[in-house]
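Re: [ENG-882] Designed sequences occasionally contain unexpected residues at chain ends

Forwarding the minimal case from QA. C-alpha coordinates:
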Protein backbone atom coordinates (compact mmCIF):
# COMPACT_ATOMS: atom_id res chain seq x y z
CA UNK A 1 0.00 0.00 0.00
CA UNK A 2 1.42 3.38 -1.01
CA UNK A 3 2.41 5.64 1.89
CA UNK A 4 3.32 9.12 0.67
CA UNK A 5 3.52 12.70 1.87
CA UNK A 6 3.48 15.03 -1.13
CA UNK A 7 4.25 18.55 0.11
CA UNK A 8 4.23 21.84 -1.76
CA UNK A 9 7.40 23.08 -0.05
CA UNK A 10 10.11 22.17 2.41
CA UNK A 11 10.08 25.54 4.16
CA UNK A 12 7.25 27.92 4.99
CA UNK A 13 7.83 31.57 5.86
CA UNK A 14 9.05 32.06 9.40
CA UNK A 15 10.14 28.46 10.09
CA UNK A 16 13.10 26.18 9.44
CA UNK A 17 13.62 23.40 6.94
CA UNK A 18 10.73 20.85 7.18
CA UNK A 19 9.84 22.33 10.57
CA UNK A 20 6.15 22.82 9.83
CA UNK A 21 5.66 19.15 8.98
CA UNK A 22 8.04 17.37 11.37
CA UNK A 23 5.30 16.02 13.64
CA UNK A 24 3.61 14.37 10.65
CA UNK A 25 6.95 13.00 9.44
CA UNK A 26 7.65 11.45 12.83
CA UNK A 27 4.54 9.32 12.40
CA UNK A 28 5.01 8.80 8.67
CA UNK A 29 8.54 7.44 9.12
CA UNK A 30 7.92 5.72 12.45
CA UNK A 31 9.40 2.40 11.22
CA UNK A 32 12.30 3.95 9.29
CA UNK A 33 15.60 4.19 11.12
CA UNK A 34 17.43 5.84 8.23
CA UNK A 35 15.98 8.02 5.47
CA UNK A 36 17.44 7.70 1.97
CA UNK A 37 17.69 11.24 0.60
CA UNK A 38 17.63 11.96 -3.14
CA UNK A 39 19.35 15.36 -3.62
CA UNK A 40 19.36 15.37 -7.42
CA UNK A 41 17.26 18.56 -7.75
CA UNK A 42 20.11 20.64 -6.24
CA UNK A 43 18.41 23.99 -5.43
CA UNK A 44 20.71 26.85 -6.38
CA UNK A 45 23.30 24.37 -7.62
CA UNK A 46 24.12 23.23 -4.07
CA UNK A 47 26.32 20.13 -3.80
CA UNK A 48 24.77 16.76 -3.03
CA UNK A 49 26.75 16.59 0.23
CA UNK A 50 25.63 20.03 1.43
CA UNK A 51 22.02 19.36 0.51
CA UNK A 52 22.06 16.02 2.31
CA UNK A 53 23.44 17.72 5.41
CA UNK A 54 20.47 20.11 5.44
CA UNK A 55 18.09 17.16 5.36
CA UNK A 56 20.15 15.32 7.99
CA UNK A 57 19.91 18.22 10.46
CA UNK A 58 16.13 18.39 10.03
CA UNK A 59 15.50 14.68 10.50
CA UNK A 60 17.82 14.55 13.50
CA UNK A 61 15.12 16.52 15.37
CA UNK A 62 12.81 13.49 15.13
CA UNK A 63 15.52 10.90 15.74
CA UNK A 64 16.12 9.75 12.17
CA UNK A 65 19.42 9.50 10.34
CA UNK A 66 19.80 10.46 6.66
CA UNK A 67 22.03 9.03 3.93
CA UNK A 68 22.32 10.55 0.47
CA UNK A 69 21.73 8.27 -2.50
CA UNK A 70 24.98 9.56 -4.01
CA UNK A 71 26.88 8.01 -1.08
CA UNK A 72 26.08 4.51 -2.39
CA UNK A 73 27.94 2.76 -5.20
CA UNK A 74 24.68 1.22 -6.40
CA UNK A 75 21.81 3.76 -6.20
CA UNK A 76 19.26 1.22 -7.41
CA UNK A 77 20.13 -1.16 -4.59
CA UNK A 78 20.02 1.72 -2.11
CA UNK A 79 16.42 2.37 -3.12
CA UNK A 80 15.51 -1.31 -2.89
CA UNK A 81 16.97 -1.49 0.65
CA UNK A 82 15.54 1.82 1.92
CA UNK A 83 13.11 1.91 4.84
CA UNK A 84 12.14 5.50 4.04
CA UNK A 85 12.83 7.86 1.12
CA UNK A 86 12.86 11.66 0.80
CA UNK A 87 13.29 13.61 -2.44
CA UNK A 88 13.92 17.31 -1.89
CA UNK A 89 13.08 20.34 -3.96
CA UNK A 90 15.09 22.30 -6.50
CA UNK A 91 14.99 22.00 -10.27
CA UNK A 92 12.54 19.35 -11.47
CA UNK A 93 14.17 19.06 -14.91
CA UNK A 94 17.53 18.15 -13.35
CA UNK A 95 15.88 15.82 -10.82
CA UNK A 96 14.08 13.87 -13.52
CA UNK A 97 17.17 13.92 -15.72
CA UNK A 98 19.26 12.30 -12.97
CA UNK A 99 16.58 9.73 -12.13
CA UNK A 100 16.70 8.58 -15.76
CA UNK A 101 20.49 8.89 -16.02
CA UNK A 102 20.97 6.69 -12.95
CA UNK A 103 18.23 4.31 -14.14
CA UNK A 104 16.32 4.46 -10.85
CA UNK A 105 12.93 5.90 -11.81
CA UNK A 106 11.22 2.55 -12.28
CA UNK A 107 12.89 1.11 -9.19
CA UNK A 108 11.68 4.07 -7.14
CA UNK A 109 8.14 3.61 -8.43
CA UNK A 110 8.31 -0.10 -7.65
CA UNK A 111 9.27 0.30 -3.99
CA UNK A 112 6.83 3.16 -3.41
CA UNK A 113 3.96 1.17 -4.91
CA UNK A 114 4.84 -1.60 -2.45
CA UNK A 115 4.69 0.73 0.56
CA UNK A 116 8.12 2.20 1.33
CA UNK A 117 7.21 5.51 3.01
CA UNK A 118 8.08 8.54 0.89
CA UNK A 119 8.30 12.27 1.37
CA UNK A 120 8.47 14.65 -1.57
CA UNK A 121 8.77 18.41 -1.34
CA UNK A 122 8.45 20.77 -4.32
CA UNK A 123 10.35 19.02 -7.17
CA UNK A 124 10.17 15.81 -5.14
CA UNK A 125 6.40 16.19 -5.18
CA UNK A 126 6.20 17.10 -8.86
CA UNK A 127 7.57 13.67 -9.75
CA UNK A 128 4.71 11.93 -7.93
CA UNK A 129 2.29 12.91 -10.71
CA UNK A 130 1.82 11.37 -14.14
CA UNK A 131 4.35 13.81 -15.62
CA UNK A 132 6.54 16.71 -14.48
CA UNK A 133 4.92 19.04 -17.02
CA UNK A 134 3.37 21.40 -14.46
CA UNK A 135 6.62 22.36 -12.74
CA UNK A 136 7.42 26.07 -12.41
CA UNK A 137 11.14 25.45 -13.00
CA UNK A 138 13.41 26.57 -15.82
CA UNK A 139 14.37 23.82 -18.32
CA UNK A 140 18.10 23.95 -17.53
CA UNK A 141 18.59 20.39 -18.82
CA UNK A 142 16.51 18.16 -21.09
CA UNK A 143 15.50 14.84 -19.47
CA UNK A 144 14.83 11.84 -21.72
CA UNK A 145 11.12 12.04 -20.87
CA UNK A 146 8.69 14.15 -18.88
CA UNK A 147 7.01 10.98 -17.62
CA UNK A 148 7.44 10.53 -13.88
CA UNK A 149 6.24 8.16 -11.15
CA UNK A 150 2.46 8.22 -11.68
CA UNK A 151 1.82 7.51 -8.00
CA UNK A 152 -1.20 9.82 -7.97
CA UNK A 153 -3.73 10.22 -10.83
CA UNK A 154 -3.00 13.91 -11.52
CA UNK A 155 -0.07 16.29 -11.79
CA UNK A 156 1.21 18.65 -9.11
CA UNK A 157 1.80 22.37 -9.43
CA UNK A 158 3.80 23.05 -6.28
CA UNK A 159 4.00 26.54 -4.71
CA UNK A 160 0.66 27.40 -6.30
CA UNK A 161 -0.01 31.15 -6.21
CA UNK A 162 -3.36 32.88 -6.51
CA UNK A 163 -3.62 36.05 -8.60
CA UNK A 164 -2.85 39.18 -6.55
CA UNK A 165 -5.44 41.86 -7.39
CA UNK A 166 -3.07 44.58 -6.12
CA UNK A 167 -0.11 43.47 -8.23
CA UNK A 168 1.01 45.53 -11.24
CA UNK A 169 2.52 42.44 -12.84
CA UNK A 170 0.77 41.83 -16.18
CA UNK A 171 2.25 38.40 -16.94
CA UNK A 172 0.43 35.11 -16.91
CA UNK A 173 -0.97 33.73 -13.67
CA UNK A 174 -0.52 30.11 -12.61
CA UNK A 175 -4.15 29.47 -13.49
CA UNK A 176 -3.61 30.86 -16.99
CA UNK A 177 -0.57 28.64 -17.54
CA UNK A 178 -2.41 25.53 -16.39
CA UNK A 179 -5.24 26.38 -18.79
CA UNK A 180 -2.64 26.61 -21.57
CA UNK A 181 -1.37 23.18 -20.56
CA UNK A 182 -4.90 21.78 -20.85
CA UNK A 183 -5.20 22.93 -24.46
CA UNK A 184 -2.82 20.10 -25.36
CA UNK A 185 -2.99 17.71 -22.38
CA UNK A 186 -5.78 15.95 -20.50
CA UNK A 187 -4.16 15.09 -17.16
CA UNK A 188 -5.69 17.01 -14.25
CA UNK A 189 -3.54 19.34 -12.15
CA UNK A 190 -3.60 20.10 -8.43
CA UNK A 191 -2.41 23.56 -7.43
CA UNK A 192 -0.84 22.93 -4.01
CA UNK A 193 -0.42 26.06 -1.89
CA UNK A 194 2.49 26.67 0.49
CA UNK A 195 2.22 24.76 3.76
CA UNK A 196 -0.19 22.20 2.32
CA UNK A 197 0.49 18.57 1.55
CA UNK A 198 -1.16 15.36 0.41
CA UNK A 199 -1.25 12.29 2.59
CA UNK A 200 -1.52 9.21 0.40
CA UNK A 201 -2.41 5.84 1.88
CA UNK A 202 -3.06 3.28 -0.81
CA UNK A 203 -5.70 4.78 -3.09
CA UNK A 204 -6.86 7.29 -0.46
CA UNK A 205 -5.53 10.84 -0.96
CA UNK A 206 -6.23 13.45 1.72
CA UNK A 207 -5.36 17.14 1.61
CA UNK A 208 -3.59 18.31 4.77
CA UNK A 209 -2.58 21.71 6.10
CA UNK A 210 -4.58 24.87 6.75
CA UNK A 211 -5.29 25.87 3.12
CA UNK A 212 -7.52 24.61 0.35
CA UNK A 213 -6.04 23.39 -2.94
CA UNK A 214 -7.13 24.32 -6.46
CA UNK A 215 -7.98 21.47 -8.82
CA UNK A 216 -7.92 21.90 -12.59
CA UNK A 217 -9.55 19.57 -15.10
CA UNK A 218 -9.55 19.93 -18.86
CA UNK A 219 -12.58 21.85 -20.20
CA UNK A 220 -13.98 22.41 -16.67
CA UNK A 221 -13.97 25.29 -14.22
CA UNK A 222 -11.33 24.85 -11.48
CA UNK A 223 -12.62 23.89 -8.05
CA UNK A 224 -11.38 24.40 -4.49
CA UNK A 225 -10.72 21.26 -2.47
CA UNK A 226 -11.22 21.44 1.28
CA UNK A 227 -8.39 20.58 3.64
CA UNK A 228 -8.57 17.48 5.85
CA UNK A 229 -10.87 15.79 3.35
CA UNK A 230 -10.25 12.93 0.99
CA UNK A 231 -9.78 13.93 -2.64
CA UNK A 232 -12.26 12.05 -4.80
CA UNK A 233 -11.33 12.05 -8.49
Amino acid sequence: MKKLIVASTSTVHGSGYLEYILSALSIHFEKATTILFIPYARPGGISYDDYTEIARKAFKKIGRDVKGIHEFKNPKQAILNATGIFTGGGNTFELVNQLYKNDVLETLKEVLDKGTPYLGTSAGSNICGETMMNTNDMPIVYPPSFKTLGLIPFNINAHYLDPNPNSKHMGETRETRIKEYHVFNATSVLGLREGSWLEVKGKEITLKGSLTARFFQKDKHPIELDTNKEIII
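QA comment: On inspection the terminal residues look reasonable. The chain has a mean pLDDT of 96. Proposing we downgrade this to a documentation issue.
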